[in-house]
Amino acid sequence: MSVAAVLMPVAVLIVSATDKTPQDKDVKAGGWGALILVMLIVAVVVLAFSFTKQLRKAQAAKDAGVYGDDPAEADAAEVTEADEPENHSAS
Length: 91
Prior knowledge:
This protein is mainly α. It is 69% helix and 0% strand. The chain has a domain at 46-82. It is elongated, with a radius of gyration of 35 Å.
């Protein structure tokens, strides 16, 4: 018989005797859990505002033609010219 086979049941008995599971009435979430939850919510809100700000800056840069695209004014002028109906009547 090996030493591990002998010591394993002894270890299980010692752990079960000393490590008691708390009762349901003894377990509470506490203030630290609430504080961490509030901090996580605040962090998500801050990140959402920052992300929105970055998206607006990127859209403004795209409209200005920073990314190699044509500026938004040129794109809008092309669209309005293409949308004008052509007159095919013979007057």
